[in-house]
Fold each of these.
Amino acid sequence: MSELLYKKNRSFYFLLIIPALFLYIFSLIIPLVFGTIPSSFYDWNLIEGSKNFIGIENYIKLFSDKDFIHSLIFTMILAFFTIVGTNLLAFFTAYFLSEKLFGKSLSRAMFFIPNIISGIMVSFVWVFIFTGAIPSLGKSLGIDSLANISWFGTPQMATISIIIVSIWQGTGFLMMLYITGFQTIPTDVLEAGMLDGCTGIKKIIKIQIPLLMPTITINLFVSIAGAFKAFDIPLALTAGGPSKSTQTIALNTYNDAFISFNTGYASAKSVILFLIVAIITIIQLRITRKQEVEA
Amino acid sequence: MKKLKVISCLLALCLTAGISSCGASNNSKSEGETVPVKLAVWASGAADNFNKAADEFNSRQDKIKFSVEMQSGDYGQFLGAKTAANDLPDMFFLSPYSQVQQFAKNGKILDLSDRDFVDKLYDNAKPSGEYEGKMYAYPMCQEMLGIFYNKNMFKDAQITEIPKTVTEFKEVCEKLKAKGYTPLAATYKDSWTINHAFSCLQGAVLQDNMDTWIEEMNSGNGSFDVENSDLVFNFMDIMKEYSGENYMDADSTSGFNALATGEAAMLFSGEFSLLNLASIDPDLPIGLFAVPVTDNPEDAKLDVDVGICVAVNKDGKHIDQTLEVLDYMSDNTDTNGWMANTADDMGSATPCMEYKGNFSADYLEDYQKYLDENNVRPWVYQQLASGANNIIADTVQGYFANSKDKETVLTELDSKYKDLVK
């Protein structure tokens, strides 16, 4: 039926996306193709106004730039933990909030709220929690080890802080998608499974996860792209510190573009970031699409 | 059905148009005869005072509408974008020395050598706005970096003399600690505060060799590793030891508040940190002394330098009117003008010329004493190439976080700075 509808209304659907597509091309594709990519071949300092063609020199320089390589590794670590953390947490919260539960709507709203608050605000709240609330709690409970944790004191602890806050903020949105996914699973399939003795964890693995694959595809896509572009939370929580140890690629690129004004070099970095995210998401889409099944 | 489709299409179009108009600015004109003059400033706690001073100027005449625009985002980004688009405001703040020189070299700012303020400036303030012997910017205010201390706590810990050597400083810290006080307020989560501190310490060990060292550095031959670098790191060790638990978790705001609320006895920072004190406890007696890095009391000089330069856009539309505003800003005889509104209360930077204000405070008296005795020296980092502050801030922060040792810090500083000046 849906195929038939799609064929019948194809031109109408296309007409609907034209305005948005136009904006997308105008504000994203054109600047990328005619701005970022060409300027990555220039030695361009925005303030001095000097712009000299230097070929692929910017790209060569990238591979010996310790700060950039470190930010790349840090972004990978951050991405891994955030993607796994948000998806697992979102999946299980969605699972429990899809069941018949008292105060379900309220709980859903509570979980979703962090997502609609800006990353900067979220970070400010967490800075207070890390440096004010947790130490006070530790002191009043007499637990010195809790009170004396320096959340931003070492590169490792700063990384953990960023991961915690990123997961806390990202979970709500993915949870909503998982909840919608759970609702699309036909109840007759679940009931049939139950009659055959498929319950509990078995039900999740054998029935729900396979039927949720389209949602998982989308969620992984969203969280991978988001994790690699991480900017606001690291900026507001640690500003990349201590000593640039928690600088993501986006933050590193930003600093080059707008603090040092090496516009050409920063463009080369954004092209690399674009390629990394594109390659990873294409691979992920191919893998997860293959796992999708029809109910 | 058809009607519904048409409506849907229109709605999609409206939605897109709505989004695209979000960024459109509202260019309102019709200012009448008045000429608008804009001054772009970076975000700081002084913005209210700037606005007050601008209102005062506007109330005196009706030909020019002077407005101060605070850039809430990144100021460097703002300058870069405006320079690239050739759309700089009439006047704007620049960092002293290297940034002024950069803009002068690129022909973006007006030569102000013939203005009245030039002769009135203190001699030590002049180089900050000069390029090739001409004055390209108005050094608006000078700031002091040193150790601000809570006099009550000092009295309570029976400290009668301010420390003039590093050994005395350590003793003071011990006495304060023994009394149960946190000797130093931590601000080290914000790396820029570390740049300030390192710059003072480096200046203190360079002493009279500062100019030669800066020259060597900027020609790409110098090194951060100098004869008495040990003393710099020794002082940073003291800072780490006496800044309380979890000192890396405290940013500048919490550090400034720590002094103001009496949580800590001393704060290594600038007068701007006292803006917090002004709103928390303006009556708290706060003194100021120069950071003692060596064991020679004569080396303890206060780090005083120009903090803000104001430049005039060479391609501005209303240059005459802009210069009129600049004259207002640099008039040290006006008792209700720019200086009275912006440089005459707690935490405000002081003018770079003689000015008799009404505000008095202990720390200002201490400051004046250092000035009168000419016991001051400029900040090192401002005369290094533009961008040196970020390199120093980020690298030295590793020493505070114990993720880098002295040798690593010095090697990294050298290699990154060489890349910068290349």
Amino acid sequence: MERLDLLSAWQIRAGIEAGDFSATEVAQASLATIREREPRIQAFLQVCDDLALKAAAATDARRAAGQKLGSLAGVPVAFKDNMHLVGSRTTCASKMLENYESPFTATCVRRMLDAGATPVGKTNMDEFAFGSSTESSAFFPTHNPWDANRVPGGSSGGSAAAVAAGEVAIALGSDTGGSIRQPAAFCGVVGLKPTYGSVSRYGVVAFGSSLDQVGPFGRSVADVALAMDALVAGGRDRLDSTSQNVDVGFANCLEDPVEGMRVGVIPSLMEHKGLSAEIKEGLEAARKALKGQGVRIVEVGLPNMDSAIAAYYAIGPCEAFSNLARFDGVRFGYQEPSCETLAQQTAFSRAHGFGAEAKRRQLLGAYLLASGVYDKYYYPAQQVRTLITSDYAAAFKRCDALLLPAAPTTAWQFGHMSDPTQMYASDLFTISNNIAGNGGVCVPAGLGSSSGMPVAVQLQGPPFEDKKLLQVARAVERGIAHAGLFEPNTVAPSFVERGGDGA
Amino acid sequence: MKKLNEVLRDWDVTIGLEVHTALTTLQTKMFCDCKLSHDDPPNTNVCPVCLGMPGALPVPNKKAIESIVMAGLATNCQIMPRSYFYRKHYFYPDMSKNYQTTQGPVAFCMHGHLDLEVPGQGANGGYVTPIRIQRIHMEEDAAKMVHVGGQEGRIGGSSESLLDYNRCGTPLIELVTEPDIRTPEEARLFMEKLRQVFLALGISDCSMEKGSMRCDGNVSIRRRGTTQLGTKTEMKNLNSFKSLHDALAYEICRQAEVLEAGGAVLQETRHWEPSKRRTVVMRTKETADDYRMYPDPDLAPFDLSEEFVQACRARVPELPDAKRDRYMAELGIKRKDADQIAGSPAAALLFEEAATMAPECAGLVANVMVNLAPAATAITAAQVAGLAELLRDDAITFAQAREVLQIVDGTDADPREVVDKRGMRQITDADALATTVDEVLQRCPSQVAQYKEGSRKVVGFLVGQCMKASRGTGNPKLFNKLLVQRLDEMNRG
């Protein structure tokens, strides 16, 4: 029998429909793989065997009853642990919410379940999504499936690692400054941050409300497209007043030819001094892959890109300060025992419930919003936001998508990145996308010649043109595979070799 | 302490009001679907949104936006085509998110005014003065806190504080006036007028007692003839028109006493204690609170379309001032009566229905509405019209009308039938009364003589005698007329 843990979401869906195997068998295989691999990866904060087997049994019952199967029927899916799923805890990888039971199910999770997905667990992350390595999890770090000495990236590191290790076919993450795209790049999987407003934020614990966007990880562009169709089906969510209607049809247009399309490159970014040689090689390979399919490469500029990190580290912390104010130990979450006064209880609950990075960002936000300071940082940051948004609008008049680096380097080793500002700077290529709100996707472009780690490139598209963006991403994936650099649906090799005894 | 009148001779007063009105006539809260109710057991109308649970998001209540736009239109405000919700941060358990969703510099309604008519007092004539309205903004209410174990439910000395989040997220509109108010009386009149307008709009029950309309007052004084504004204090717990007036009057006198003794007024928030008739310090504002206000990223900028505003405009009913003017012009009602009836939507409705039933005596209908109806609990328009007609026909006296009202109140009885059935109808036949008049005049020669000498007062006494003789069945007005006729005849004869 085939290794069920190595199948794509499409293959799982088709196999269940055809009766080659049952959803329950797929769920059991996924759970067995998790049991076997988790000691080394630690991608999961919780594994929900009961929920998984129950959902799989329901899918099998539907099939037995001759009912129509959902587009993700029986596909094992993992959720970043900032997404509510009734029957599981939602910890945000923080001591603050260590025992917090999800009081309702997030809209994005609900839509995956409505499409028939099998929920297998909640994945590790940087605490409250503050970070780029998953090291700030209050519980344990996650390891990169390609090299256990390296970080998986972050903040959605657990989701990226779970997909890369073949534990699940699809995972959801959230991206505030690159938190889907950068770990996807580090782990050799595809990760999409859709245009802001495409996917409901209801039930996802907020970090930066104007920047956060939920999106899928998969081992192929096709699997990511399949998940997107499930996420936008049903239209805008009336529980999230910033959500918008997006038509389904992501999976239909992937094989449409890209000939004649224009993809923009920004010379200063392609030659950025911080880029490693491997990354430059990846970009060159992607450029070739696109050219080979009749895409014209044009040079464009994003002149205000240099201000993106500064603007992001003003807006993000301000929103984080405000969103995390509700964690005061009064109604839910960590409550400091034996306090004399309310003020003490609030102060100590927050002091002992939050980790260092969460405190750093909130203090920064509290400072930046203070009267007199607001006008110097928050307000100009919003002006920068307008400038960057118009830069993108101008660039997209000249091209259909942008090709740019995902991160300056491949995944770094644990302990390599100790200075927070150095880590903030590594988000350079992903952050402007959250500031402007348009979509971005990272696609593997080969393995680094010196590190042996996955190298990825990033594509960005105009707002609400994420279908075309995935079409271009699929062209890169196709060309890279054609060049023999990286196959779609690749599971991290150490695990392929070790074999999956669950299947 | 000096009396207010004395203080006002030497000092100019500047008062500004902040009025919070809960939109109690809505079905649901400001940002979620929870039921709005004051009567349910604590913490039963709550959900992840109003409890501020992680992951929950606000969705604005369209009907609340309609209400505030109507309030703005009724107070001559500019309705802003684009406004924003802001987050106002402070750590306190009554605000579940530890920030209140409110509005920033641009509110839904800006730059309005209400014209205040201040009636004359003694030698001073009445006057009309515009009170400018700075803004009306939308916000959410906090949870109710109940402090147990302290005095009068205050937090000081309490052993526990209980939280009821049923109120958390109730839609509130806050109206802020410019500091245009000059006396406690003007402040009281402004609040009364605002309450009448909001009642007419039907956006709130406007109960100051239940707290659905709350008012804070800012007051400062400065020496007459100077222009530099004094330091202001803020007054809380003004939960009745009387408290509003009395607290401001007390505070003005207190500030004058402090300043006249060479002291300085401190910028502070003070609490009105109605039982002791004084204000006491709640907290001193040494530095302004920093609420770290910024635009709420969960709520997009709010663009109000012209169509939406027009639809709200169409729903603004005739307002009390216009109603009063119409009653005066079309029905010939006295200004004082028209004012009083127009101020209450329920009274106006009853009046207009009754006036249609008895169109030829609208003035008496108004009289019944103002002087009799307020004592009734459930009186119908037909009954009001019936009473007015009985009075018009001199069939009953005003005192009897009050009695009839008590009988018919809460029933659907026709006052005319009640009067007939109980034999209350007065005799209005002059021939029938003439005999009584003659009898009385015969019995009272000395009063007749006094009349002859020019005393008109005795007529009242003689009417009383006639009423007594007829056991109250004669009409006093008619007796009066007949007596004067007869006396004048006697004098001539």
